[in-house]
Amino acid sequence: MSNAFRAPPPAHQESPPLSSPERLVHLLSRVADKDREAFAELYEASVAKLFGTVLRILKQQAWANDVIQEVYVTIWQKAGRFESERASAITWMVTIARNAAIDELRKAPTRPTESDSILENWVAETPSAYDQRHQDETSTQLTLCLDELEESRQQMVRLAYLEGWSRAELASHFDQPVNTVKTWLHRALKQLKGCLGS
Questions:
Q1: pLDDT at residue number 120
Q2: Which letter, b or e, does each residue of 73-89 get, where b requires 16 or more Cβ atoms within 10 Å of its Cβ?
Q3: What is the C-alpha to C-alpha distance for residues 95 and 184, in angstroms, rounded to an integer?
Q4: Which tens digit of pLDDT belongs to each residue from 101-160?
Q5: Which of 36, 64, 77, 152 is packed most tightly, with the most Cβ within 10 A?
Q6: What CATH number should be reported for the domain whose range is 12-107?
Q7: For the region Disordered, what residue ranges are annotated (predicted)?
Q8: So what's the pLDDT on residue 25?
Q9: Whole-prediction pTM value?
Q10: DSSP readout, 97-148?
């Protein structure tokens, strides 16, 4: 008899915890059938564990945020391949996360730590070096430099660095691949740095 037609547990019996092994297996089986509600539940139940795995490897939160989005895309696509006889659900997902992080690290072993944070660092460090008047002038200069960017790039920079949007969220919003978003942001920040330094 399938799970869908089993009688509900007695009223006094508690449901298994959201992240229990049995629950994760059940959710993965539903995700294999492209059940979006189950996918959302699976994400909530496992994201802390998987994000921690990725962050320990990449050491950078923004980078880990990008990779974890790709990890869940992989889980969505490959849920049907999960075999509970070979590994627990969480072990299977952690393996996907670890492999994704290692692959990303191999692709960019010397990834600069400041390339995605030029704007934040510049803004954060400037006030400590100058008085309030210069800080006001700096804010004005930053606004002028932002205005020199294409409108879409302005919006992307503001969403990424003022609103904290992930690269995956930006990719969805602008209907572009994640790698394209990364390239656009890198170019926009390079242009801003040149403008601010002139």
A1: 44
A2: eebeeebeebeeeeeeb
A3: 31
A4: 888 887 765 554 444 444 444 444 434 343 444 444 455 667 777 778 888 888 888 777
A5: 64
A6: 1.10.1740.10
A7: 1-20
A8: 92
A9: 0.48
A10: HHHHHHHHHHH-TT--SSTTTHHHHHHHHHHHHS-HHHHHHHHHHHHHHHHT
118-197, which class in CATH? mainly alpha
Domain boundaries, the chain: 12-107, 118-197
Which tokens in the block code for residue 64?
Answer: 């880990």
* Residue tagged 């564990």 (tokens): 49
pLDDT in tens, 165-193: 788 888 888 888 888 888 888 888 888 77
Helix, strand, coil tally for the chain in percent (to 5): 75, 0, 25
DSSP secondary-structure letter at 163?
S
| Inter-residue contact 76 to 31 (CB < 8 Å) | yes
Torsion, CA 166, CA 167, CA 169, CA 171, rounded to 10: 170
**Equal fold, 12-107 vs 118-197:** no
Q: Two tokens at 168?
A: 């995956």
From the list 196, 194, 197, the residue with the least C-alpha distance to 142 is 196
Our CA dihedral for 17, 19, 25, 28, rounded to 10 degrees, sits at 120
